[in-house]
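Before the break, one more example. Copy the sequence into your notebook; we will annotate it together after we see the structure.
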Amino acid sequence: MRILGVDPGSRITGIGVIDGGRVLHVECLRLGGGAIPERLGAIFERLTSVIGEFSPRVAAVETVFMSRNPQAAIKLGQARGAAIAAVVAAGVEVREYSPREIKQAIVGRGGADKQQVQHMVRVLLGMTETPAEDAADALAVALCHRHRAETASRLPPGVNL
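Here is what the structure looks like once it is written out:
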């Protein structure tokens, strides 16, 4: 199953595409500190391009976590909105996972740190180099969806995760 993973951010958005256990694409979209409308447009445009190139069946997007800084949380929510809008506009199914769910699926505990996630993503995908944090997070959310989908496919009809 080809999955697009997105770790949205208003300054850096992680993007990864996996197909089974293979990495097809991974990047950190660096948006800088320009005006927020231009950054959101860049997220939309880049994801539209990646979707057009790789044709994922589903997109897995990390949900917003609670921040002590309300402005940062608002900008993160806007970045998520731009990412989700690009996915929906392309007709791709969207699934959302919390940071805790993703860490639990990848590392085995919801309180894992960034380095543990990076390490496990590298191991699970057989990568020779450790991906950057935001790229690893994007791949992790894609892997989380893959694990969930594989588990759900083994359950009897009518049983939901």
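The mean pLDDT is 92. Residues 2-154 form a domain with the Nucleotidyltransferase; domain 5 fold (CATH 3.30.420.10). Try to locate both features in your own notes.
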